[in-house]
Amino acid sequence: xxxxxxxxxxxxxxxxxxxxxxxxxxxxxxxxxxxxxxxxxxxxxxxxxxxxxxxxxxxxxxxxxxxxxxxxxxxxxxxxxxxxxxxxxxxxxxxxxxxxxxxxxxxxxxxxxxxxxxxxxxxxxxxxxxxxxxxxxxxxxxxxxxxxxxxxxxxxxxxxxxxxxxxxxxxxxxxxxxxxxxxxxxxxxxxxxxxxxxxxxxxxxxxxxxxxxxxxxxxxxxxxxxxxxxxxxxxxxxxxxxxxxxxxxxxxxxxxxxxxxxxxxxxxxxxxxxxxxxxxxxxxxxxxxxxxxxxxxxxxxxxxxxxxxxxxxxxxxxxxxxxxxxxxxxxxxxxxxxxxxxxxxxxxxx
Amino acid sequence: xxxxxxxxxxxxxxxxxxxxxxxxxxxxxxxxxxxxxxxxxxxxxxxxxxxxxxxxxxxxxxxxxxxxxxxxxxxxxxxxxxxxxxxxxxxxxxxxxxxxxxxxxxxxxxxxxxxxxxxxxxxxxxxxxxxxxxxxxxxxxxxxxxxxxxxxxxxxxxxxxxxxxxxxxxxxxxxxxxxxxxxxxxxxxxxxxxxxxxxxxxxxxxxxxxxxxxxxxxxxxxxxxxxxxxxxxxxxxxxxxxxxxxxxxxxxxxxxxxxxxxxxxxxxxxxxxxxxxxxxxxxxxxxxxxxxxxxxxxxxxxxxxxxxxxxxxxxxxxxxxxxxxxxxxxxxxxxxxxxxxxxxxxxxxxxxxxxxxxxxxxxxxxxxxxxxxxxxxxxxxxxxxxxxxxxxxxxxxxxxxxxxxxxxxxxxxxxxxxxxxxxxxxxxxxxxxxxxxxxxxxxxxxxxxxxxxxxxxxxxxxxxxxxxxxxxxxxxxxxxxxxxxxxxxxxxxxxxxxxxxxxxxxxxxxxxxxxxxxxxxxxxxxxxxxxxxxxxxxxxxxxxxxxxxxxxxxxxxxxxxxxxxxxxxxxxxxxxxxxxxxxxxxxxxxxxxxxxxxxxxxxxxxxxxxxxxxxxxxxxxxxxxxxxxxxxxxxxxxxxxxxxxxxxxxxxxxxxxxxxxxxxxxxxxxxxxxxxxxxxxxxxxxxxxxxxxxxxxxxxxxxxxxxxxxxxxxxxxxxxxxxxxxxxxxxxxxxxxxxxxxxxxxxxxxxxxxxx
Lengths: 350, 756
Hints:
The complex is a heterodimer.
Chain A (H helix, E strand, L loop, with lengths): L2 H7 L15 H15 L10 E7 L5 H13 L8 E7 L4 H13 L4 E5 L1 H10 L7 E6 L17 E5 L2 H15 L5 E6 L6 H15 L2 E6 L3 H12 L8 E4 L8 H14 L3 E2 L12 E5 L1 H16 L14 E6 H7 L5 H6 L2 E3 L1
Parallel strand pairs in A: 1-2, 1-3, 3-4, 4-5, 6-7, 6-8, 8-9, 11-12
Antiparallel strand pairs in A: 10-11
Helix pairs in contact in A: 3-10, 4-5, 6-7, 8-9
Chain B lengths: L1 H11 L8 H69 L6 H14 L3 E8 L4 E6 L7 H4 L4 H8 L4 E2 L3 E2 L6 E10 L5 E10 L4 H5 L8 E6 L4 E4 L2 H5 L8 H8 L10 E4 L5 E8 L5 E8 H4 L1 H48 L12 H48 L3 E5 L5 E4 L1 H6 L4 H5 L7 H5 L2 H11 L3 E8 L5 E13 L2 E10 L1 H60 L5 H32 L5 E3 L1 H12 L2 H6 L1 E4 L5 E3 L1 H18 L7 E8 L3 E8 L31 H11 L3 E7 L3 E9 L6
Parallel strand pairs in B: 18-20
Antiparallel strand pairs in B: 1-2, 1-6, 3-5, 4-5, 5-6, 7-8, 7-11, 9-10, 10-11, 12-13, 12-16, 14-15, 15-16, 17-19, 20-21, 21-23, 22-23
Helix pairs in contact in B: 2-10, 10-11, 16-17, 17-21, 18-20, 20-21
């Protein structure tokens, strides 16, 4: 019996087939969605754009930023895609440093990378309440209350330390080894710089072993550097055998170095700087940590913070110290560099 | 009723399973498909999992061995450098400058060396070089035990346990290389403090899959090298890691032959393996995330799930199509049924789908048609019954409303449930007041003992009637005839009280009682008077008989002996005296007979009335009379009575008929009889002188005569005697007549079963 015939027999009948003509597309869509969610291996870092503030307190530390970004890229943080850097380069400008850090706080950055010691200490103080993670790089941790300990920094701060005490002491040892005649050393320093005291202490330990006498020249500004050296230059006997620079932001500037370098050259004195660029001029040797490497190590810490590891539980990293020898300057000064040191040097400049 | 009730329940019961047939079919298709695929998929996955486990274990072992070689090479490389330096430079015997140069050169050669010291055979430092500010080297010797130092003296290499730099947290170890002369005599040693962080890059670069990692631990569980250097710098102990713990607890340097699955150093599930180093006493552990290690299995699983999903979707689509074909006609049928249930009874189902379903639809349509007809008939019957019921209810309500009897129904708790207007009226209350009552609380009932009767009737379901005088709750004083009975309704026992006001009835009843008492007194007085009168009559009749015989005797003597002395008038007077004396004698005889009737005993026996009537007629009628009189009688009913008395009745009646019809030229006497349910009626009719019906009341009086002596002789006692006899038999007599046209007398006797 055909349906049409039956319909004629029962004209009041209801055709309800229509309500069962449903599309299977919805079920397929749901299943595919479930599979995507289950097996896609979602990594939220790919979808969130992090905000990072970077404050370099001194121009020569610029390489830290480069190393940091380089390593961050290797770790999957692509600038402009999932991370944005608010980079500020200052040069011994304390007031501006505070403004920049305040800006980072107002922008509620995911973390801030701050270096060297003074800006790092300032950042720690300013972020006490809001808890924004602070990563320091190339900062001394001894004697400045930056962290509780190397293994457990505490608070909201951690980073890559600058091994200022041991490095400063070793510089003096190297100076004595290269120039055994040196007994009077002009020590140019900013006594207010946070790392000065621990660095000086280690320095005094070495000096005592080798009968070194420091001719102290404390400065508070670039003008002080100029003035003091000019005053010293007026003397018939300047009374020093070498110039030794302490790590701080005043003597660390290129301008200060130019003044000091000129003085050293004029008086044919070995001068030991604290930063890499000194080897381009009259600097005799350089024992330092690679800023680039410090930046890379800082990126490792930043990655852990962005993976929700509390900063206080991330130990402070100490970078390697590398020896660079300005063989050319030693020839100018008539000094003989021991063969063993030359073999230790990462680079010998001829 | 029970079965029908269950049936109705099942029909109205909501389905437990609310899934539609459509859904059920789809679910069934999908479920069967998925289950079959899941079963085969699981078997395949288990097989793959086992195979992959072997592959992963072997791979991990291989990687761990390679990593262990690399780490071991790192250490051995440092020893080799030191050994070479000792062999080539013979440092113990060199000048201090040469010794310094050797050490500086070694520092330059190996970045991992942090400090180097040359000790002579007495362990006095000969030279020292350091990347850090120099410090006293003697403390290095404290890391070497006497036994270990003895081994060094015997030319064996030494490596200390690992310690951490207090400033940097970096792991350090001290390596000692003895210096022997050509005679293998101990001359001294070169001691190198080695920074193990230079092993970190080596470990970090060990390739363990895509996301795997390797790390180095010592026998104490300290983490020495790992890609995440911060963990190493923390100086953590990784003893809680299952594999590390296994290494720590194992004194053997044997390599485990299997990989383990556990929670790794990154707190994720890993497949790991470790390889102990011989020197130093460390182990290299390689870990591969479980999901990566079993990625092929996971891929297979995902593929299997995808296939299952696709098949499930296909099954759902196919199932949907089939289900639609199967379910749609059924749903149509269901919805048609629903609409019919909702009232659209003329609706018909669509006859479509498979033949079974179409047949079902056809059967359903037939059923609905029949159901429609049945419902119509049923509705009509229900309507008629409803109307009848309503009429009955109205009728009952009217009866209840118009009934003069008070009716009150109480429910099982005693609460008034129904009351009619008569009840309220009878107790001087209102229906609302009565409806608010519970008979357990009616004080008037308790006061007059009605409460106990009601409770007994209610509890024992018995009918009780009681008449009593009481004062109702509403102040009415009256006699009430109360009747209690019970009835069941909806499984509960109700008490029904019906009552009437008996006050007027009681009053009338009392009056009747008083009247009856007076009547009884009067009847008693009359009976006594009658008895006295009968006694007097008997006495008088008896006493009169002697002087009357004397008169009659002396008159005879006078006539017989002195007739000659008497003239005609004298003789006529004597004849008159004699006639009157005879007449008086008859009167006295009749009067005595009448009196005796009250005292005579009734000796009842069956009487053949026909024979008795014929005999009496023959006795009374002379032959001349019999020739002249037309005497007719039929077969008369038998009767029960005293034969002598009944004979007297017939004598008096037939003699009267002969007497009063004697003057007719053709006397006609007719005697008949018949019987009804209670009595036998006899009649005697004549065409004689008759009588005036106005004097019918006097017919049965004693000495009552409707004709003069001259017309018809007689004493006037005959009919009275008849009436007395019939009364004694429980019968009665009456007469009808018309002057000169005859008379008819009827008398009755009780049927024999009613005879006293």
